């Protein structure tokens, strides 16, 4: 991580147009804002836990910020971050597979508001990789429900603050691992797997309203339309990841993150001559190619291709996507897709010009939505 921060500092002094710089967040902000969470550094032992420096990237100010001397309780010391939703992070212990829900890593949360919820075990899902998480509301609110889906499990697990066990629902249809809570419809949506046959309408998984849970529904994915030929070719020839996201006003979008494989020679190795070099000398990584956005129009029953989402910014990364208004968060670029994963790095994509802007190409990243 220290090498990564060193590279960022070097980039900021050379590439002025990115204007990357460092600042120290000496006090917690009361205003919510999107952040990109980087790896903690400078671990020091403390009573009942440890003290660390939390590193984040602020896409509004285009700078790395550091929160020094942040206390982590013992249970959060050896954890992996499995994803975030509504500004809260689900963390999993490395050795025992214990799950926690916390807002400690969000710089918009004051120290007095820090909370850590010890989540129940996921039973036979304990060894499965968590593929998606979604919160219906902040755990501080009465209608909060956490939904968790594991990639290899046929079950969707639901939890409310105070529950001693998960409420498990078997998914009877071939849904993907893409999940979203719709504030407009007050439902959890699962995106169906892609196939030649389009979904004819929403399929209610189970009516859980009697148990004070939101409805869980298969999302109605409409046929895509108005796709330019060049964009259609990009979709067909790319390695695609789909996201389902809802805007603050209730508009829904399906976004395709299109990547391509990039082969490169391992550091320190000399490229050999000949047509068939030894495969052990070649590494492969995904390189972001483009993003394709479809606005879901329920009245016309189509997914309309668009390069204009107004002042909206869509954030894609690990697990749940989210969307904010650039007007409410000055400094963000409107009509853009912000992206971040450990494999592709992070940057933003201007939809109007179809232009990709890489900021950092390596590291471990997780977007944190504005705290709710």
Automatic annotation (TrEMBL):
A Pfam match is: Beta-prop_KIB1-4
Question: For the KIB1-4 beta-propeller domain, which residue ranges apply?
Answer: 61-350
Q: By its UniProt entry, which InterPro entries does this protein fall under?
A: F-box_BR-signaling, KIB1-4_b-propeller
Please give the PANTHER family that the UniProt record associates with this protein: DUF295 DOMAIN-CONTAINING PROTEIN, OS07G0183000 PROTEIN-RELATED
Q: What is the name listed in the Swiss-Prot or TrEMBL entry for this protein?
A: KIB1-4 beta-propeller domain-containing protein
Q: Which species?
A: Arabidopsis thaliana
């Amino acid at each position: 991580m220290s090498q990564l921060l060193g590279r960022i500092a070097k980039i900021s002094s050379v590439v002025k147009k990115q204007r990357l710089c460092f600042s120290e967040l000496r006090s917690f902000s009361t205003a919510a804002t999107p952040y990109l969470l980087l790896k903690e550094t400078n671990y020091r032992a403390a009573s009942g836990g440890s003290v660390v420096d939390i590193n984040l990237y602020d896409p509004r100010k285009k700078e790395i910020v550091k929160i020094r001397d942040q206390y982590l309780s013992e249970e959060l010391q050896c954890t992996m971050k499995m994803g975030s939703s509504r500004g809260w992070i689900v963390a999993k212990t490395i050795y025992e597979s214990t799950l926690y829900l916390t807002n400690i890593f969000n710089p918009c949360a004051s120290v007095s508001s820090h909370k850590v919820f010890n989540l129940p075990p996921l039973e036979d899902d304990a060894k499965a990789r968590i593929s998606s998480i979604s919160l219906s509301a902040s755990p501080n609110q009465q209608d909060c429900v956490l939904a968790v889906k594991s990639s290899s499990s046929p079950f969707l697990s639901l939890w409310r603050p105070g529950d001693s066990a998960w409420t498990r629902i078997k998914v009877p249809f071939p849904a993907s691992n893409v999940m979203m809570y719709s504030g407009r419809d007050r439902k959890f949506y699962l995106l169906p797997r892609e196939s030649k046959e389009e979904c004819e309408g929403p399929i209610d998984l189970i009516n859980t309203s009697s148990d004070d849970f939101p409805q869980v529904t298969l999302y109605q994915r409409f046929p895509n339309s108005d796709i330019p030929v060049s964009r259609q070719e990009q979709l067909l020839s790319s390695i695609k990841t789909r996201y389902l996201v809802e805007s603050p006003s209730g508009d829904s979008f399906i976004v395709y993150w299109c990547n391509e494989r990039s082969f490169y020679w391992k550091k320190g190795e000399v490229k050999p001559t000949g047509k068939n070099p030894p495969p052990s000398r070649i590494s492969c990584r995904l390189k972001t190619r483009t993003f394709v956005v479809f606005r879901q129009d329920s009245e016309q029953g189509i997914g309309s291709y668009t390069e204009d989402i107004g002042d909206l910014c869509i954030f894609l990364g690990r697990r749940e996507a989210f969307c904010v208004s650039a007007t409410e968060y000055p400094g963000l670029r409107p009509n853009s897709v912000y992206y971040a994963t450990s494999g592709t790095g992070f940057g933003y994509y201007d939809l109007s010009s179809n232009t990709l802007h890489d900021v950092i190409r390596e590291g471990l990243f997780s977007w944190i939505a504005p705290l709710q």
